[in-house]
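Ticket 4471: requesting a sanity check on a complex prediction with pyridoxine-5'-phosphate. Repro inputs:
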Amino acid sequence: MILGVNIDHVATLRQARLGAEPDPVMAATLAILGGADGITLHLREDRRHVNDRDLDMLRGFVPVELNLEMAATDEMVRIASKKLPDMVTLVPEKRKELTTEGGLDVRANMKTVKKAVRTLRDKGIAVSIFIDPVDSAVEASKEVGADMVEIHTGGYANKKGPGQAKELIRVQNSVKKAAGLGLMANAGHGLNYVNVVDIAALPDLRGLYIGHSIIARAVLVGLERAVREMKALTCRGCP
Ligand code: PXP
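Returned structure tokens:
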């Protein structure tokens, strides 16, 4: 199971003082030392946390999978085509949201998403699409030619008890649906050291993309240890 660590929250802390620290590039180094299989960053249109310099530097040194989350806009496709991350995850983006709120409505943006996927794949970049756990979104992702989907686990993470069990089944069904269509399936959003366990046990899941809970834990125990502890929870067959 791939563990992709999202370092946006380190950049958010840096931007609180508009200074140079903490540096998301240094954070990526520690996350990798802790066992991260990938580093994720979200370059937003408004550059509210991660900026172009971060992408430049991370592309320069990250030896594991570099996953660029971005909107399917011409500007972002141009940047990705130049910087060549290992993979791109297409996400919806709203200026006022605190974090990505829902999956991308692929069907409603078919033409734009298809064009973005084609351009990125022509550059050798693997493309994932962040979608809600519904069959139609998985089918639309297949239709636009994506390599992977990332199933939004926010609904699962926000519930408890039977409601959460129901959401887990929705995620599981979407992962199964994706696998049946020949798409690789990832999951992410709102996962933490408690709720990740049931998600990590789902069959056919390729990877998990986690940010906030790891960085929050890192404030208390250090980033390398926080990643190592998450890796131990999500890893299959690790010592
Ligand atoms: N996956 C996607 C597509 C996201 O937008 C985010 C949030 O940036 C995450 C995963 C990570 O979510 P969290 O920070 O809640 O772990």
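Notes from triage: The chain has one domain: 2-234. Leaving this open until the requester confirms.
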